[in-house]
Amino acid sequence: MNNSQKAQHLMDVTYPGQAGGDTFRLLELLAIPAFVLDARGHAIAWNRACERLTGVPRYEVLGSANAWSCFHRDPRPTLADLLIQERMDEVGALYDAHAQLCDEPGHLSAEGWCDMPYAGRRRYLAVDVSPICDEHGHLAAVVETLRDMTDEKQAQISLEQLATRDGLTGLANRRCFDDTLHAEWQRALRQQQPLSLLMVDVDNFKQYNDAYGHVGGDECLRRVAGAVAKEMRANDLVARYGGEEFAVILPNQSLKGAAIVAERMRCRVEQLHLPNLGAAKQFVTISVGAATALPAPEYEPSQLLATADAALYRAKHMGRNRISLTRESDGAA
């Protein structure tokens, strides 16, 4: 008996009779990718559209309990598996979004990224599952249908990036900075951790624009932004605050640590050796103001921002191309 015959035999045994056979033939013709798992989690149907989506022919899946391997590299249950195994409390941790399709229990919808190891491409899939019960109300099988929403998801991500990214430098924009500062302040307050902030300004930028024009000025800002961003940790955020000014959020970072980061930034920008004919030092440099706070309920993030801004102002008036730290009189913790 070849693989196709084995698959048909399994289908006939599981759902004997003309009605069952017709149901599976209709499923086979569906343009929507779909598969069926029995009450033990074994695949009993895998239509052609599912073959095209996953790159896995049905004879390799039917009868097995590893349908998940067609969608993920590492062991991870499908939505149908979760329903069969009564593990629906795990859906939120495994999928980006999920919802109940109707008032009937077990009818669920979820969305998330899948590795698609056999197809060789990562896809964002919307998944619907529905239980099939016998005449006694016992679960007999689960149908899972899939929709490839990769293009729509990527378009959504692009729109979100437009809303949170600065078009010139590619850094976070002012809106993203404000939202992140508020969120990190609340997190630091809960965890009683320090929060540091750097305000960065390109020295003598007006003279640079006068000498090289706006096109040259834009390229200068892009180069400086790239240099500053290279000093960031995974959880840090660097944003274009406005004009030639940048802001850096350093979660769980002491003032001493913030000063080290600031000095590395200053050196990295200076080492770009971007000529600035309008500046005394002949190269583009930055000034940095650093501040740190241990958030408390009676304080606001705006106070940390004001303190870092005052430190930046001081660095500019002390001769530029330097960093300035919080003073006790500035009121930061």
Automatic annotation (TrEMBL):
The record ties this protein, via Gene3D superfamilies, to: 3.30.70.270, PAS domain
- InterPro entries associated with the record: Diguanylate_Cyclase, GGDEF_dom, Nucleotide_cyclase, PAS, PAS-assoc_C, PAS-like_dom_sf, PAS_4, Rev_trsase/Diguanyl_cyclase
Q: Which residues form the PAS domain?
A: 25-91
Domain of life according to the entry: Bacteria
Q: Where do the PAC domain residues begin and end?
A: 108-161
Check the record and name the CDD domains matching this protein. GGDEF (cd01949), PAS (cd00130)
Catalytic activity of the protein? 2 GTP = 3',3'-c-di-GMP + 2 diphosphate
Chain ranges of the GGDEF domain:
193-328
Q: EC? A: 2.7.7.65
Q: Give a single Pfam family match.
A: GGDEF
Query: Which PANTHER family does the entry mention?
Result: DIGUANYLATE CYCLASE DGCM-RELATED, REGULATORY COMPONENTS OF SENSORY TRANSDUCTION SYSTEM
Q: What is this protein called?
A: diguanylate cyclase
High-level lineage: Bacteria, Pseudomonadati, Pseudomonadota, Betaproteobacteria, Burkholderiales
